[in-house]
Automatic annotation (TrEMBL):
Pfam families with a match to the protein in the record: Recep_L_domain (PF01030)
Official protein name in the record: Recep_L_domain domain-containing protein
Domain Receptor L-domain: 34-121
InterPro entries listed in its UniProt record: Rcpt_L-dom, Rcpt_L-dom_sf, SPS2_domain
C-alpha cells in the first residue's frame, strides 16, 4: 500500500500515478503522512477515472474529498481480502459525495464524527460487506458480540437495518422494552439470530423484520 506523498506523486511510472493517466493500478492511502495540498491532489487526480485496487483515507484533516471527483469507479480485486474503500478517523471530514460509486464495494467508514452519509446510496451499494460506525449517521446498526444492558446503550434508537449477529445470552440481556426501543423498526437482519438462556418471552421487538440474510465480513467469514 502506497501513501500519497510528494515523493510518490513525482515518482516513476511503477507507482501508477503519472499525471494524465486515466487509471491507478495499485492500492493507495491518503493519511497523516500525506504532504500534498488539496490543490495538488486535485491536479494529480484530475484525469484519473478508475482505481484498480483499493482506496484508503485515514487520519486526515480534509473537510471534503473533492480532489477525487473525476474518479468514477473502483475496480475490485476479488482475490484481495480487505475493504475496497476505507474512510477512517478523519476528524474534519463532512462529505464523501465524490466517493459514492455505483459499484458493489466492501467498505469501512468509521470514526468520522462530522460525516453525514447518504443512506440511500450506502444501503444500495455498500451494504453487503461493511463496517460503518462512529459517523453522524451510520445507515444501520452494527453489532459486535452479545447484547447486554451496557452494550445496548451504544446502539441507536429505531434502527432499521441490523448488521452482525444478533445475540441475546444470559441474565444481563436488555429488557424487551429496551430492545423494542432499539430494534422495533428493523426490517432487515444481516447476520445470525441467537437467543440462549434468557428470560425473554417472545421476539416481538423483531416483529417487523422481513429478511434474515447472509452477512459476509471483509475477512471472508459468512454469518447466516
Amino acid at each position: 500500500m502506497n501513501s500519497l506523498t510528494s515523493a510518490v506523486a513525482n515518482g516513476p511510472a511503477e507507482y501508477g500515478l503519472e499525471l494524465g493517466r486515466d487509471r491507478i493500478i495499485s492500492t493507495y492511502t491518503t493519511d497523516e503522512s500525506t504532504d500534498l495540498t488539496h490543490e495538488k491532489l486535485a491536479e494529480l487526480f484530475q484525469n484519473v477515472d478508475t482505481i484498480d485496487g483499493a482506496l484508503t483515507i485515514v487520519n486526515t484533516s480534509y473537510r471534503n474529498v473533492s480532489f477525487f471527483k473525476a474518479i468514477s469507479r473502483i475496480r475490485r480485486n476479488i482475490e484481495r481480502i480487505g475493504y475496497d474503500l476505507s474512510i477512517v478517523n478523519n476528524t474534519e471530514l463532512t462529505s464523501i459525495d465524490e466517493l459514492l460509486f455505483h459499484d458493489l464495494l466492501d467498505v469501512e467508514i468509521s470514526d468520522n464524527p462530522l460525516l453525514a452519509l447518504d443512506c440511500t446510496h450506502i444501503i444500495e451499494y455498500y451494504s453487503k460487506v461493511r463496517r460503518i460506525q462512529g459517523n453522524v449517521n451510520d445507515c444501520g446498526c452494527e453489532l459486535d458480540g452479545a447484547l447486554t444492558q451496557t452494550t445496548i446503550l451504544a446502539v441507536e434508537d429505531n434502527c432499521e437495518l441490523i448488521y452482525g449477529d444478533f445475540i441475546l445470552s444470559g441474565k444481563d440481556t436488555p429488557s424487551s422494552d429496551v430492545l423494542e426501543q432499539k430494534f422495533g423498526k428493523a426490517t432487515i437482519l444481516a447476520g445470525q439470530l441467537l437467543v440462549m438462556d434468557t428470560d425473554i418471552v417472545d421476539l416481538s421487538f423483531l416483529g417487523k423484520v422481513l429478511i434474515v440474510e447472509k452477512y459476509l465480513t471483509s475477512t471472508g467469514r459468512i454469518s447466516i
